[in-house]
Protein: Glutathione S-transferase
Amino acid sequence: MMKLYDFPLSGNCHKVRLMLSLLQLDYEIVAVNLTEGEQKSAAFLQLNLLGQVPVLIDNDVVVWDSQAILVYLARRYGGEKWLPTDADSMSKVMQWLSITANNIQNSIAAARLHFLFNTQLDLDLAQQKAHQILQIFNEHLSKRDWLECDRPTIADIACFPYIALAPQGKISLDAYPHVTNWINRIKDLPGYISMPGV
Structure:
């Protein structure tokens, strides 16, 4: 059975839990207490040198980084449905994985960390960047139901958690109706699971 090294309040862990559920895959959760620094233990650093969750173990395959895990799960267990292999579609999906790892992580997710864990950062700048990226999402989603391919893909799953958690970073979604409609469509997917704050 697969093992997921997990922290329940992590949006990056949630996107993996959500993908596993959508694919109806069995797995065991191995809790990692980030507040006590378990992710920096020698044993955990053998799994991920960066000392970060999530980490997925599937038999003898070890994958870390939430975006990489989504790619692995989609290709290994999802066929073409979640990550198409034609060059045009795959590149469009991968663009959004890059956006979540950079733009979303350094704005919406960062602001949330400030309020949840007192992480020090330029909060005004993070919130300003958050509204910029949310406006981009809102405009993009005004013309479609899903980010790419006219269906849910790992692009949607990668971007979903921290956008849905934006209010925890004191970032209102009220001005972005197409984003909130997209959030609700994801919540309506068969196999959807939630997390604290969503």
Summary: The chain is about 50% helix and 10% strand. Residues 2-77 form a domain with the Glutaredoxin fold (CATH 3.40.30.10).
